[in-house]
What we know:
This protein is an all-alpha fold. It has a single domain, classed as Up-down Bundle (Four Helix Bundle (Hemerythrin (Met), subunit A)). It has 8 helices and no strands.
Amino acid sequence: MLTKLKQRVQFWMTAEAKLAHSIGLTPNQISAIGIAFATLSALAYWKWHFHTLLPTLAPLLLLASGFCDALDGALARLYGEATTFGGFLDSLLDRYADAIIFCGIILSRLCDPFWGLAALIGSLLVSYARARAEAAGVKMETVGIAERAERLVILAIASFLTIAWREALSWGIVILAILTNLTVLQRVIYFHEASQRKEE
């Protein structure tokens, strides 16, 4: 869903990509900065109750990580620096980012551990389903209702809403747990239908 919007955002980020290039940043370096932001976000979620600024800082760092995820792609496309390894590294770091952020939330007891683990597993399997399907020649991008962009937005909104509603993040995790695993199911069905068409 929001993957198409992300592609448009990457197109609009020409100025930011040029600035990053002018100071010598490469797409892989921006990916590394993104995982650093994600790690700091996870720490802020983990220590959520220790300081009044952390509930605001955690989602801001999360969004900064998402910004880097869009910027590295924009930079790679603009300057022809897209590589097979870069794509692999970006995807790998995204999985680490997803995992550590959910771990931070679970460890801080901001959600029920069951739903937190369900959201974590669902998020990882959404990405695995795409990787496995595309390895088999079935394009999976934009298939499903909870790709990474949607997950980041839902998590950030739920986090900000805790300012007014204490249980917002907990319910946001429940929503993510349901939507991510539903997305996995959507991709299984899509792959099954696509593979059958290829075999006919």
